[in-house]
From TrEMBL:
Pathway: Cofactor biosynthesis; coenzyme A biosynthesis; CoA from (R)-pantothenate: step 4/5
Keywords on record: ATP-binding, Coenzyme A biosynthesis, Cytoplasm, Magnesium, Nucleotide-binding, Nucleotidyltransferase, Transferase
PANTHER family with a match to the protein in the record: PHOSPHOPANTETHEINE ADENYLYLTRANSFERASE
Assigned protein family: Belongs to the bacterial CoaD family.
Gene Ontology BP annotations: coenzyme A biosynthetic process
Cofactor dependence: Mg(2+)
Primary localization: cytoplasm
Protein name as catalogued: Phosphopantetheine adenylyltransferase
Amino acid sequence: MTTTAIYPGTFDPITNGHIDLVERGAKLFDRLIIGVAAFPSPSKKPAFSNQERLDLARIALGHVPNIEVKAFDTLLAHFVAAENAQVILRGLRAVSDFEYEFQLASMNRQLIQDVETVFLTPAEQYAYISSSLVREVAALGGDIEKFVHPEVAEALSARLRR
């Protein structure tokens, strides 16, 4: 049996922390789908369009063989079911992430009982990186090249120059 996992997120932009989790998750599962949320939560104002986020994720993850990058605009539980996935992969950077992620995992367990949520922590050098911090550093003129793939850094810099 092939085990399929879905790693959902906004990925605005995809960071080296995300890439680290994908690389390690790809070793655990036969198939790993990076689910790019087409409609982020109302509290998030994406810097990039959905298509741009998909393209940047595909560029940054092109070296990982058993992954697919797909958009979804439904409830995560519906996307997981449509992809016949058995696992939801989530990242935990800090203790502060745990409560929210625990709530999500519990809700998803109610919506799709036969799907497990697996948590991975990023490598220590990525534990503090978040997409929102990367956007903020870039907006204030800081160097973001050690936090994201080079093409992501260029795309974000170009976006901010507009």
